[in-house]
Amino acid sequence: MGVTVEGEVSIDMKAVKNRINANIERIYEEDDSPEALEKLGVDVIVGAAKFKDSKTLSVCFSNGSGDEDEMFDICANDGILIATGAKPNPPLIEGIHEVDYFTYEEAFSLDEVPKTMTVIGGGPIGCELAQAYSRLGAEVTIVASKLLPREEPDAGEVMQRVFECEGIKVTNSRVQSVEGSGGKDHTVLCQDGEKITGDLLLVAIGRVPTVTGMDLDKLGVALNDKGGIMIDNTLQTSVKGIYAAGDCTGDRQFTHYAGYQGAVGARNILLPLTDPGVLDQVPATTFTDPEVSSIGLTEKEAKAEFGDKKVAVAFQLVNETDRGICEGTKEGYIKIVYKKRGNKILGASIVSPVAGELIAEISMAMKTGLSFDMLATVMHTYPSHSFALQSMAAVVYYDKLVKSKPLLNFLKRLRL
């Protein structure tokens, strides 16, 4: 590649941890801390809240003096918005409690990189942390039947090839049980009989909504089949005046979606009329290398809803784009699913070094109703990764012109 590096590379995990925590703390202090919110005119009370009725919260907080905790009531006549988030899904795996396992919450609390690490779960969190620790020097095995199961099958297949090239093993089998003796050392038995041993076990099998401790049941606030707070399209719960937003609803658990819903929920409480808070099209990105992004329907879902003959797919390998060739990109693709009639975009799946940026353009097009072929008329800089979207759309745009040739010739004869 033209660059020679001599000598061994060493990892100072404490320095890595400190940098990560410093970045988190900076973002928190600037955007989310009580002090930051108070500058915006928001009163902040740190404590545990329970509902007394649909308009009143009873808050318990420590005054910091060592005395007994104080209790007081807050009345909210306009409405109350619940945004309690989610927490790691407790694993129901035989023998799991015989091992001192950890979750994403403790992911970067370690002072040393483990020699061997087992990850149970092939979703976004499992993939992100598996690749991160592998690149820090750990020997990583992912126990999962497939990677990124909610994405297009192509995405999981690409990431498996990427991981295998980086030395990350994927079992392609589910976990059956775990053996351990109370410490971090463990043995994971897979359903196909394979045994995986390691000295650190990460359990990444999803998250569950935080809905307890608030006395929601006493008010009759209903839960949905995902264990989250049931809401309507305006984010209102089954109890008038009480709204919920974000992960606690059991809907798609993304920070950007939770932030969007929080803003809409507050708007619907305080202002006349309402905005929709539950969206069909929510972009998602798994921050591996390459990134994996998606929005809308997969090809399979689109054909199931509209029929095979009414759905078309545009597909482009990233390593065949000009930018991909220049950067030596080995893996990745852009896949756009759209209606044949009208070229309405139904969904997209992107695996690319900048997939999280590219999906935003597709999200914008879907939100504004811009058809796929019309992306060809939107100028993109060359040779950016996004130029591939314009090139792909140009093929559809050209086909549209060819089909319209008789009409175009007629209009030309009329000098129109």
Keywords:
3 domains, globular, FAD/NAD(P)-binding domain, 11 helices, four-stranded parallel sheet, 22% strand, alpha+beta, Enolase-like, domain 1, 416 residues, five-stranded antiparallel sheet
What do you see in this structure?
It is a single chain. The protein is an alpha+beta fold. The chain folds into three domains: about 15-85 and about 210-270, 3-Layer(bba) Sandwich (FAD/NAD(P)-binding domain), CATH 3.50.50; about 95-205, FAD/NAD(P)-binding domain; about 285-405, FAD/NAD-linked reductase, C-terminal dimerisation domain (Enolase-like, domain 1, 2-Layer Sandwich), CATH 3.30.390.30. It has eleven helices and 19 strands. The strands form six sheets. The chain has a five-stranded antiparallel sheet.
